[in-house]
Design brief:
- This protein is of the alpha/beta class.
- Helix content is 52%, strand content 11%.
- The strands form 4 sheets. Strands 1-2-4-3 form a 4-stranded antiparallel sheet.
- The chain starts with a helix and ends in a 9-residue tail after the last helix.
Length: 572
């Protein structure tokens, strides 16, 4: 259920009854559940507008709310806040609905959209590194939530599979195969480095590489076949990482730069024809008054280089045109490093002017910060090299497995390995997703693998704790009326019923850390409930009701973690 909307509706009616119709109600869930389930913060603004005393107006609204079918109590606090406590009967009815519904009583959106989400997007000349982690897991979580809420989600992996570096790689591959006909590409990263050294140090080789770029762009069959070798090998590396991370990205979601190659010149020609792109020193440029510098000069958005070459801007315009024209997107999300913000702002502005991005289609830049080491610098190996993503994930599993064995020495190697993989991968993902995506964050093995605090292992353990209860519980009835008498029973019930509100917020804002914070709140509240309200030792309706709360807690944690792309275990 959408608890927030339900309570907001009641609050708005109370404002109207108090003679303040049409005033916006600012309703917030309280951070301290002991003060109530929600707080109305809009009284002071309404009072100022109506020229009334805020506390007196708050008291009028509270008196109307107190006898409500939804609200048990409404208490005025501070200069004019109103703390609301929900009726246990109202909570109990909705707990029953959530408990006995596969979707927890969460409605799908009544206005479903086709959402095209662009994420991961590695360059295929090299293996994926830690810089690709955030885009991959943030985008995947957002896509899961949007789909769960009833939208049609089209995932697009806009890989870098075109450009000058491929001419260099093809030239080096041809050179290697001349010396060794049986040569096969084994280590893509090492091969790239060796090719780059040759390109930088040998002018003749560099000229050959550039010739191969021309042949590649001209559709030479031999060069295209060699290019495809690099693409296929790179994609196999990437898919192995996606599978380890349990991402929803599949090979069919790959839509690289090469896909839009045939539309690049038509896009530039169209911009010229519309008077948006003009020639400037041999290049084709869209001048944007919306992005003037300090001297008042408009920003230059270059769409074609001097000599006819294309840039990211050219490809991104063609790509955007395809996603709206062919994929019929209502909403576009680009999950990209925050340093690209200006590029995408200019891309969206140019696209609006050109008519590629209609007013009824929303385009959003979903920026994210940098993963930092403990030294406060971008995360690197000890030697200062970029960390391969596959190596990071391998280390996560190894560390988690060692931790699991230390805690449970009796576990067999296979079982410890299985648990270690779930805990290790979950820890890496949650450490990222629990942070505001726009912030930089420090990568800390000890913190993320801790079984205490706001971590994946803590949440995964909370889930196994619930499963342990049911292994001992015996018979109980999920459909019997729920009875809530103790304060922590009511607090846990109210929090569980906020699930839809949180998911809607993530779908609207593309901030997965809202969901992570909610799941942590559920887990910590359940821990308090578990200690204060004995479950298995309780009797009658109380025992059954507490089992119902425990069941819904476990189900909510499992579903919520799945929407973050994190698995759970019945035993840890």
């Amino acid at each position: 259920m959408n608890l927030h909307q339900t309570v907001e509706h009641e609050a708005a009616a109370a404002f109207a009854a108090a003679g303040i119709a049409g005033s916006p109600v600012v309703l917030q869930p309280t951070k301290n559940a002991e003060h109530g389930d929600f707080q109305i913060n809009g009284v002071m603004g309404a009072a100022k507008k109506a020229k009334q005393n805020p506390r007196e107006l708050a008291q009028k609204v509270a008196e109307v709310l107190a006898g409500n079918a939804v609200i048990e109590s409404a208490e005025v606090a501070g200069p004019g806040f109103i703390n609301l406590r929900l009726r246990p009967e109202f909570l109990a009815r909705n707990i029953q609905t959530a408990l006995n519904d596969a979707r927890f009583g969460i409605a799908k959106t009544d206005k479903p959209q086709t959402v095209v989400i662009d994420y991961s997007s590695p360059n295929l000349a090299k293996e994926m590194h830690v810089g690709h982690l955030r885009s991959s897991i943030i985008g995947d979580s957002i896509s899961r939530v949007l789909a769960f809420m009833g939208n049609t989600v089209i995932r697009q992996n806009h890989v870098g599979d075109w450009g000058t570096q491929f001419g260099m790689l093809v030239a080096y591959l041809v050179e290697q195969q001349k010396d060794n006909a049986a040569f096969e590409l084994a280590d893509l990263e090492q091969f790239y480095r060796a090719a780059k050294v040759r390109f930088d140090e040998d002018p003749t080789f560099a000229d050959t590489a550039r010739e191969y770029v021309v042949k590649l762009q001209g559709g030479d069959e031999t060069v295209l076949a060699l290019w495809k070798q690099f693409v296929d090998i790179s994609l196999s590396h990437a898919q192995a990482v996606y599978d380890t991370l349990s991402l929803k990205l599949r090979p069919e979601d790959v839509a690289g730069e090469s896909k839009y190659n045939d539309d690049l010149q038509p896009v530039v020609d169209d911009l010229v024809q519309k008077g948006l792109a003009v020639e400037d020193d041999g290049a084709k440029v869209v001048f944007l008054d919306e992005f003037k510098n300090k001297e008042g000069e408009p920003a230059a958005f270059i769409v074609q280089k001097q000599g006819g070459g294309f840039l990211y801007a050219s490809t991104d315009l063609a790509c955007l045109r395809y996603r709206i024209g062919r994929l019929k997107a209502d909403r576009l999300l680009y999950v990209v490093d925050h340093r690209q913000a200006l590029h995408f702002e200019q891309l969206f502005t140019t696209s609006r002017k050109a008519g590629y991005l209609p007013e009824d289609v929303k385009a959003e830049f979903i920026g994210f910060g940098t993963m930092m080491g403990k030294d406060g610098k971008p995360f690197k190996t000890r030697s200062g090299d970029t960390v391969k993503l596959v190596d990071l994930l391998t280390e996560a599993v190894e560390r988690a497995t060692a931790l699991v064995k230390e805690k449970n020495p009796e576990l067999g190697t296979d079982e410890a390995g299985k648990i270690g993989k779930t805990v290790g991968i979950g820890a890496v993902k949650y450490a990222d997703l629990s942070k505001n995506r726009t912030s930089d964050y420090v990568f800390d093995w000890d913190a993320m693998l801790s079984f205490e605090g706001n971590t994946a292992p803590y949440l995964q353990y909370a889930y196994t704790r619930v499963q342990s209860v049911f292994r001992k519980a015996g018979e109980w009835d999920a459909t019997a009326p729920t009875v809530l008498t103790e304060p922590l029973e009511k607090q846990l019930a109210a929090e569980l019923l906020k699930f839809e509100d949180v998911l809607q917020s993530v779908a609207d804002t593309a901030y997965p850390h809202y969901l992570a914070a909610y799941l942590y709140q559920i887990a910590t509240l359940f821990s308090r409930f578990y200690e204060a309200c004995p479950i298995l030792k309780a009797e009658g309706a109380s025992r059954n009701s507490r089992l119902q709360l425990a069941k819904l807690t476990g189900d909510t944690l499992k579903q919520g973690l799945d929407l973050l792309g994190i698995d759970v275990l019945d035993v840890m």
